[in-house]
Amino acid sequence: MDEIGRKGRPGASSTPLRAARIQDVARLADVSTATVSRALATPDRVSPEARARVLEAIAQTGYVPNPAARTLRSQKTFMVLVVLPDLANTFFSKILRGIEETLFDAGYGMIISDLDGSPEKEAHFAAYTAAGRVDGAILLNGHLFGQSRDGKGTPAKINIPLVALCEAIPNAGIPQIEIDNRAAARQMTRYLASLGHARIAYVSGPAENVLEHERFQGYRDGLLAAGLSFDPELVLSGDFTLESGVRAGQELVARAERPTAVFCTSDEMAIGAVRTLRSAGLRVPEDISVAGFDDIEFAAAAQPALTTIHQPRRELGQAAATVLIDLLQGRETEKRIRLKTELVVRDSVAPPRA
Fold it and tell me: Helix, strand, or coil here: 343?
């Protein structure tokens, strides 16, 4: 019997050891070498039973695929770039998990790009992508490489499939995976109004952000549907961060006439606002109700637990990765996918005091 990938022992045969080959894996798994290749490169094209036998044979033989040879043969890297605006934002954690597990099942890895507002980083990853270092990209930053969020500038010439996730990129001509932010914000605003709140403050996201535009329109829609007038004095500036929620809370504390409810367009801002309001001696929700958006992990654990809009973040990541894989493998795909949100009622919202 051949010695495949095993270390020699004193007194063993002097026959030179050789590394395990793909043929060894195929023979042990009772499949063709083509099936072994497919199980590694595009596992969705191989039956679960055959894939399991291949993986077991790889474990037994110690076979190590040659990624460089694989790339040369296929002219593919089997890597996907995921572009984030801010890796520190906890909102992206479940999204990344959904992307990674879907890519892994299809034989792809991922590289995370944290732009963090840096033009230098964006230029670097634009060149990296244009050079074909990855097979495709999922964009969560709200714009194409080379352009600003408002569409100004010339997009970089990148000849690989792109998918926009969460934040739609208008007129980009690429698949968009998102939720209906306007409908979700309208639902929250109407819910607050249905409890009897007539003065509902709104803490915004960044002014240039597409999500902010949609959620603000939903807030206006909700007020209109409830028969409430819009008061620009009740709109406070934010940027989706905890710190901006703290600042919004400070502004509310300083007001002589406060709203009875506050709708923050991210959970981080809502948690920051609650912290500041409670530090000033105000009770949430007895003195003022606070609602959020996203349903991040900390929303349920906050004090009080946060009423919010649940985004199916893991499913959003899975959907984006699935669409990108379809594009990479030459399959037709939808241009726009919207997943459903859910209003989650917890303890931070209550009817206003009489």
Answer: strand
DSSP string covering 247-279: HHHHHHHH-SS--SEEEESSHHHHHHHHHHHHH
Q: Backbone phi, then psi, for 114, in 5-degree steps?
A: -100, 100
CA–CA gap between residue 136 and residue 145 (Å, rounded): 13
Tally the C-alpha atoms within 13 A of residue 182's C-alpha that lie toward its C-beta: 7
Output phi, psi for 311, to 5 deg. Answer: -100, 135
Rounded-to-10 torsion of CA 81, 86, 88, 90: -90
- Are 350 and 195 in contact, with CB atoms under 8 Å apart? yes
Q: Which residues contact 112 (CB under 8 A, 6 or more apart)?
A: 82, 84, 87, 96
pLDDT tens across 242-254, in order? 999 999 999 999 9
Given CA atoms 93, 94, 97, 103 in this order, what sign does their dihedral have?
negative
Nearest to 66 by CA among 20, 8, 106: 20
Q: pTM value?
A: 0.79
Q: Which of helix, strand or coil describes residue 203?
A: strand
- Residue-wise pLDDT for 259-317, tens only, equals 999 999 999 999 999 999 999 999 999 999 999 999 999 999 999 999 999 999 999 99
Name residue, tokens 């004090």: 303
What is the Cα–Cα distance from 142 to 209, expressed in whole angstroms? 8
